């Protein structure tokens, strides 16, 4: 393996998480435009994908804590290295915060007890019991507060993913640094 390329497992985690996030964004944009009968299945898929992204993020973080990522090209400017570093940290934080706020919000949903959540329709995914046991007024406040946080985090993810993509495009096409090959299974990073 080239020392500028991530491992196959890291590449797989990256792209599975990216696909999960992109699909969940698409679902959020789609469900206001479908018939009412189709909304609940799309929301359930959104929840299943969110929990899956959380599981993948945990595995990716464990990989990252036990493996040194490949070095950045020596041609990066100091500000680019810092921006890359802080953008990645912020993305990790948001990739965890997004599904956790959604899970808390869902657990505080007033109808959660009557509407179990099934992970991809296969088995029941547990809600957070102590949140479900809150009194109705507190549960509503938790639902609304974490719903607002979920929405804000979503907007921050748009911003950071856009910055991440723009940085990769800049390095690939303007700087000629073959950045895509670092996070893909083939091609030779320079």
How are the SSEs ordered, and which strands pair?
Elements: H1 8-30, H2 36-66, H3 78-107, E1 117-119, E2 123-125, H4 129-132, H5 136-174
Antiparallel strand pairs: 1-2
Helix pairs in contact: 1-2, 2-3, 3-5
Explain how this protein is built.
By secondary structure, the protein is mainly α. 67% of the residues lie in helices and 3% in strands. It is built from five helices and two strands, in the order αααββαα. A two-stranded antiparallel sheet has the order 1-2. Strand 1 (117-119) and strand 2 form a beta hairpin. Helix 1 (8-30) packs antiparallel against helix 2 (36-66), helix 2 (36-66) packs across helix 3 and helix 3 runs antiparallel to helix 5. The longest helix has 39 residues, at 136-174. The protein is elongated, with a radius of gyration of 19 Å.
Which descriptors would you attach to this protein?
mainly alpha; 5 helices; single chain; elongated; 190 residues; 2 strands; two-stranded antiparallel sheet
Total count of strands: 2
Strand order of the largest sheet: 1-2
Q: What is the helix content?
A: 55-70%
Large-scale geometry: elongated
* Mean of all residue-level pLDDT scores: 93
Q: Compute the number of helices.
A: 5
Strand content: under 5%
User: In this structure, how is the largest beta sheet organized?
Assistant: 2 strands, antiparallel
The Rg value, from CA coordinates, equals: 19 Å
Query: Which regions are unreliable across 5 or more consecutive residues at pLDDT < 50?
Result: none
Q: What is the succession of H and E elements?
A: HHHEEHH
Distance between the termini: 13 Å
Computed structural class: mainly alpha
């Amino acid at each position: 393996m080239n020392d500028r390329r991530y491992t196959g497992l890291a590449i797989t985690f990256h792209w599975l998480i990216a696909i999960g996030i992109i699909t969940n964004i698409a679902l959020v944009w789609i469900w206001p435009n479908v018939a009412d009968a189709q909304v609940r299945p799309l929301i359930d898929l959104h929840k299943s994908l969110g929990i899956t992204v959380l599981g993948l993020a945990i595995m990716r973080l464990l990989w990252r804590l036990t493996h040194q990522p490949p070095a950045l090209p020596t041609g990066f400017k100091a500000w680019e290295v810092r921006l890359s570093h802080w953008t990645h940290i912020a993305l990790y934080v948001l990739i965890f915060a997004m599904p956790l706020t959604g899970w808390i919000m869902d657990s505080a949903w007033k109808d959660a007890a009557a509407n179990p959540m099934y992970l991809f329709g296969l088995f029941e995914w547990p809600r957070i019991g102590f949140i479900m046991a809150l009194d109705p007024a507190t549960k509503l406040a938790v639902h609304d507060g974490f719903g607002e946080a979920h929405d804000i985090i979503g907007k921050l993810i748009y911003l950071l993913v856009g910055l991440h993509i723009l940085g990769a495009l800049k390095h690939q096409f303007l700087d000629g640094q073959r950045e895509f090959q670092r996070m893909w299974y083939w091609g030779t990073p320079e």
